[in-house]
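So, does this match?
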Amino acid sequence: MCLLSSFRRNRRSVMSPTRVELWFATAMLLSLAVPCRAQGIMPWELEFHGGGGFVNDPALNGTSNLPAPGSPFTTTIGTTSRTTPSWYFGDGAALLNQVNTAVGAGASITPLDPVLRSSLLGLPSSTSAGVRLSRAISRRFGAEVTFDYNFARWQLNNPALAGVEASRASFLSAFNALIATGPHQKPAVTSSSGNADQLGRQTFTTGALIINLKTTGDLVPYVTAGAGVNLNAGNTPSVSLAGAYQFQILGFYPVNEHDTVTAKSSVENTWVGVAGGGLKYFFSQRWGVRLDVRTYLGRRTVATSVSASPATLTSSQLQGATATFTTPSVQFSNNVVVGRSSLVSPVSDFRTFSGNGTQSIVNVTGGVIVRFR
């Protein structure tokens, strides 16, 4: 005997992705309210499946921004400089390149700006695994809840990796050339990068309506359509750059400054639509197999942020500062008492890019089905 129930939803209520499982569980319970025309079959099906997902990385539309130029100040020799959180990007890279051009250093730094103004992320095609619970409403229609786990990890995309390497390498040549133009001895310049890559994974929880294209026989073709949520589990990739330079002014006054930058990425959870189809074959009343192809379609919303932590080694005895005779100028110092360094003013988690685009993942799976009442 079939159950009868009713369901009312407040049209003004808004469901968040964290409640999507409850929504689909309710939808499954609603299937019990439909007249049971599927007599003679076991209405419930539990499936375990595995396969692969083919990812289309979307073109992203968004906005970008970099920290504003720092405050101007007068150097110890009367020229004008301005503060910067880093030489690797933004106004710091522009200032360094202006000065190197003015002094004829013959080298410049490649700014990290294109990397910061874009998404760092890529998602490769990979394998997946999941479980599916469905119930027959009639011989023609059914309802299902599916959970799929994508084994692909978020990774830094190739343009981001290339941009980071270009900035890292150019830091060395730019500062070696600049230091060589002044009365400086014992120079030492380093620049390195580090990646926190291949982190985090995606999961999909969806509910869908099944339409059987054939209602008799052991081989059942079908189509399906529904919606759900894409959850991003775990951390996302980041990349860091660490530059340092040291030298002695006139062979006596030590300068030792460090430039550290970290760019981070983030990706939001989102709603997805799902559509697909496949074949089910039952070799007994209880057991069967399924070949399924479906597409998850939704928005990928990502962001990039940057942090910079400049540091200067302070000398309390041999205090000194040096600046370029250019406009604008760059100043290096080992003690704020004699003059401030241009490399100051840290920034923390400054958002440099926000964007979104339509992501599609085609998931092809094969599974084993068990029927039960």
About this structure: DSSP finds four helices and 19 strands in the chain.
